[in-house]
Amino acid sequence: MGMDVYGKDPSTEKGSYFRNNVWWWRPLWDYCVEVAPELCEDVSGHYNDGDGLNAEGASQLSTILFDEMMSGRTAEYEMKRNYALSQLPREDCDLCSATGIRTDTVGVDMGQPEKELLVEVQILTGRTHGWCNGCGGIGTKENWGMSYPFTVDNVAEFAEFLSDCGGFSIC
């Protein structure tokens, strides 16, 4: 699923369309709400319901985002966010019940209980065989929060879109 953001009155090709999949969009929109709450709080930015900003609001948000990037605050936000995510605990894998070996019908049909592990995983787990496609044979996986990336580059692309879109709708 993705968030298709259409310019209402684009002045350039760049301002006609912006897209992020849902994994990239959510942290981007959360950042917009954080740095420009007066513009973004009342926009249903996490839904594909056509909400958005008018030309003036989009232009103001673009300016705010560019100012945040130029000041270094966006890079600092990215760094702090990535650090906070790195501190999240790993989660038990639900496909193998945290054993590292997928033994349900799908796992057995795919030969996962007999699959040889990578050397690195063998060292971690103390076994040579038995794998799970959900956790790589370890039994735990990254915290779900790690699925939502945030980068300064993505903010820059959105800010460029905003500067030329003439307002936008999230569809």
Class based on secondary structure composition and strand pairing = alpha+beta
- Continuous helix count: 7
Residue stretches low in confidence (pLDDT < 50, at least 5 long) are none
Strand arrangement, major sheet? 2-1-6-3
What number of structural domains do the residues give? Answer: 2
Helical content, roughly? 40-55%
Range of strand content: 5-15%
What series of H and E elements makes up the topology?
EEHHEHHEHHEHE
Distance between the termini: 11 Å
Main sheet properties? 4 strands, antiparallel
Q: What is the radius of gyration?
A: 21 Å
Which word captures the global form? elongated
Average per-residue pLDDT, rounded, comes to 97
The total count of strands amounts to 6
In short:
This protein has 171 residues and is α+β, with helices and mostly antiparallel strands. It is built from seven helices and six strands.
Layout of secondary structure:
Blueprint: E1 2-7, E2 17-21, H1 22-35, H2 37-40, E3 52-53, H3 55-71, H4 73-86, E4 91-92, H5 105-109, H6 119-125, E5 140-141, H7 152-165, E6 168-170
Molecular structure report:
With 171 residues, this protein is of the alpha+beta class. It folds into two domains: 2-86 and 146-170, no CATH class; 91-142, no CATH class. Helices cover 44% and strands 12% of the residues. It is built from seven helices and six strands, in the order E-E-H-H-E-H-H-E-H-H-E-H-E. The strands form two sheets. A four-stranded antiparallel beta sheet has the order 2-1-6-3. Helix 3 runs antiparallel to helix 7. The mean pLDDT is 97.
